[in-house]
Structures are given as structure tokens and as C-alpha cells.
Amino acid sequence: VQLVESGGGSVLAGGSLRLSCKGSGITFSTYCMGWVRQAPGKEREGVGTIALNGITTYANAVKGRFTISKDNAKNTLYLEMNSLKPEDTAMYYCAAAPGYGSICSRWNYWGQGTQVTVSS
After folding, report:
1. Are residues 33 and 95 in contact, defined by beta-carbon separation less than 8 angstroms?
2. Quick one: pLDDT at residue 67?
3. DSSP β-ladder status, 90-97 and 109-110
4. What are the angstrom distances between the C-alpha of 1 and each of 79, 80, 108, 113?
5. Are 66 and 5 in contact (CB under 8 A)?
6. Does the chain have fewer CB atoms within 10 Å around its N or its C terminus?
């Protein structure tokens, strides 16, 4: 299984970025998919998840600003990030987990990450 993120970069506060995660060796339609981020000196934190039934959940810190979606035909996961803040600066990882319905288990697979830097 390989998950490859792209789309990170440096933006000014208030800007937008769209991250992508392309999978191989895995069928996105049979996994919960999500984004996790880690800022320097901090623990990893969940950003959001899209369950097998399509239900999305978000961390409070990004709710209303970030949107997760996926294209099962392309085996690609997306994270649309708007109104970015300096505190969104982190390495963003794509992850996959077994699941059923709206329930997602522990993350099984991880990408290598893509850096997002937001400056004020």
C-alpha cells in the first residue's frame, strides 16, 4: 500500500490550499480515509475523516474551513483548506483505516506527508 500526498506549500494567512492523496495497492471505497497533521513540537492530531458511508467529521479547529472529499474511481483523497491560519502550519498526512458504515478503526496506512506553512 502506498499513499502519496501532494499540494502542500507556503501561503499567507487567509489563503487556500488543496491537498491530494493518491493511493495504490488499496481500494479507497473499502477504507475510511482521513487527514492527520503534526506541527513542530506537537503530537499528531486528527484533521478530519470520511467514513465508508460518506459521512465526514472534522476537528473543531478546522470545522467550517476545511473540507474532505474523495474520488473512489481515482483512488484519491482531497483536503480543501480555506481561510488558513498560522496555527494550521504542520505536516499533513493522509491515512487509511478499516471501517464499517460511519465507524472508522485505527489508522493502518500512512502517507509520507506534505508540508503546509501559513504565514501572517
Report:
1. yes
2. 98
3. antiparallel
4. 20, 24, 10, 15
5. no
6. C
Q: What is the pLDDT of residues 16-64, one digit of tens each?
A: 999 999 999 999 999 999 999 999 999 999 999 999 999 999 999 999 9
Q: Which helix (H) or strand (E) holds 19?
A: strand 17-24
The strand pairing partners of 104, in sequence order, are 99
Counted residue by residue, the chain has a size of 120
3 state DSSP class of 74: helix
- The pLDDT tens digits for 86-104 are 999 999 999 999 988 888 9
Q: State how far the Cα of 107 lies from the Cα of 76, in Å rounded to an integer.
A: 17
